[in-house]
Amino acid sequence: MQTFNPADHMVFCRKYKENLPKLPNPPFPNAKGQEIQNTVSAKAWNEWIELQTMLINEKHLSMIDPHAKQFLTEQREKFLDNGDYEKPAGYTPKA
């Protein structure tokens, strides 16, 4: 019988620099998705998804455009690494 270990559901989040609940599944079906699941908390990922949606809408990005995908990939990495990422007009990060 397997016992529940809360530590198995935590990750040291690269954005928040603390142990937080991890994503239940990798966000992408590849090595990058696994890396994100192992280094990014569910909280940080959900915040990124909100920001990504705002960027797509504000900049009228098409997800079939390779340049748009590259832009979002770059912004995602900057956001998750606490870098200087693109912010939609009027955007203020959650405290």
UniProtKB/TrEMBL annotation:
The keyword Nucleus does not apply. It holds the Pfam family Iron_traffic. Keywords: Iron. GO terms for molecular function: iron ion binding. HAMAP family: Fe_traffic_YggX. Could be a mediator in iron transactions between iron acquisition and iron-requiring processes, such as synthesis and/or repair of Fe-S clusters in biosynthetic enzymes. Belongs to the Fe(2+)-trafficking protein family. This is Probable Fe(2+)-trafficking protein.
